[in-house]
């Protein structure tokens, strides 16, 4: 169970970095429910991409303190190509290319 108060917008920076697998899974489940059931918006800065692609709707990528990419996941051509090619972790793979 998450101790956070329910909000309509969450701004999170590396919130799962030091969590164990169970705590991370619980927090991500809470956030997913917030978006799917309550329409919350989540801005989530992270370097850990597993389990995010299934429910992320947009990608915002910064490089050199500037927005380098901002689009919907379904409009992210490079990601869609990796999905079609059967790449195991397409979002992680794409982010590795960008950095």
From TrEMBL:
InterPro entries xrefs: P-loop_NTPase
Q: Write one Gene Ontology MF term.
A: ATP binding
Tell me the domain of life.
Eukaryota
List, alphabetically, the CDD domains matched: ABC_ATPase
Q: Which UniProt keywords apply?
A: ATP-binding, Nucleotide-binding
Q: What is the name attached to this protein's record?
A: Uncharacterized protein
Source organism per entry reads Alexandrium andersonii
Organism lineage: Eukaryota, Sar, Alveolata, Dinophyceae, Gonyaulacales
